[in-house]
Design brief:
261 residues; mainly beta; 7-stranded antiparallel sheet; 20 strands
């Protein structure tokens, strides 16, 4: 189980049953030292609570109570702290593992997070792909990415071949612009390889089988949109558009691409 809770704020956790290794996401809040997380049923209604009174992230053995909201049945929770993700220029550590909230049919992911001395923030330095139920390591990939809390990995069919792939958040830029690394599944090797797909804030449409790149700059005054198709696992540009804010019309107006360069 991993948790991300801010003092007197939102809390989020991911846990798994060792027998199944399917990640379960639970959200809640941390207020005045009381951490409450909510399990949900198939209808997305709260079905149980995990409550930790006098919660302190530095406590080596946090204890709490699991309560079934329907039957009021209670079970004691005892956790053993394994690690804490720390910031600050003086600390140095490597390969702390954060289970990710998404998984594939037979595989799940653990993010590897490290911090060098002199760096203030930790970074994502790798990813483990493991087999569910057996915990067998299937593949390890080295990375150099920004840490995005608990949600760095996403899944999707990025080359539109009908097989699920995965991506890792890479970095955030000015405004809403972001980038990710996209890894495609190779059925011949049963491994995932870096697709080389690049672009800002890519969106994948499995119906049209097109990739849309949306880049914003200048405080939202200028937008460029590019549409790609995938040929032989490569992004091929189909069309580009440039939009610039028109103060008189109070709207974005399309211009020639050279105006956005």
């Amino acid at each position: 189980m991993v948790t991300n809770a801010s003092t007197d704020g939102a809390a989020r956790a991911i846990y798994v049953y060792t027998k199944f290794e399917d990640p379960i996401v639970i959200n809640g809040n941390l207020k005045k030292g009381r951490l409450v997380l909510f399990e949900k049923d198939l209808n997305k209604k709260n079905s149980a609570t995990l409550t930790f009174n006098n919660f302190n992230a530095r406590n080596s053995h946090p204890e709490g109570i699991w309560t079934d909201l329907k039957t009021k049945k209670e079970l004691k929770i005892t956790l053993v702290k394994d690690f804490e993700i720390e910031s600050g220029e003086d600390s140095e550590w490597a390969d702390k593992e954060i289970i990710q909230p998404v998984s594939l049919d037979t595989k799940y992911f653990k993010l590897l997070v490290s911090k060098k001395k002199g760096d203030f923030e930790p970074k994502v330095t790798g990813l483990k792909i493991l087999e569910k139920k057996t915990d067998k390591l299937l593949q390890r990939i080295d990375l150099d990415c920004q840490l995005l809390g608990l949600d760095n990995v996403s899944t999707g069919d990025y080359n539109f071949d009908g097989i699920k792939d995965f991506s890792v958040f890479e970095s955030s830029y000015a405004g809403p612009n972001t980038s990710s690394l996209y890894f495609l599944y190779d059925p011949k090797t049963n491994k995932y390889t870096d697709s080389g797909f690049s672009g800002v804030s890519l969106e994948f449409d499995n119906q049209t089988k097109r990739i849309t790149e949306h880049n914003q700059c200048c405080a939202g005054q200028q937008h460029t949109v590019a549409i790609y198709k995938v040929i032989n696992n490569k992004m091929v540009l189909v069309e580009e558009h440039c939009y610039i804010w028109n103060e008189k019309k109070k709207d974005l107006v399309e211009h020639k691409m050279k105006d956005c360069e």
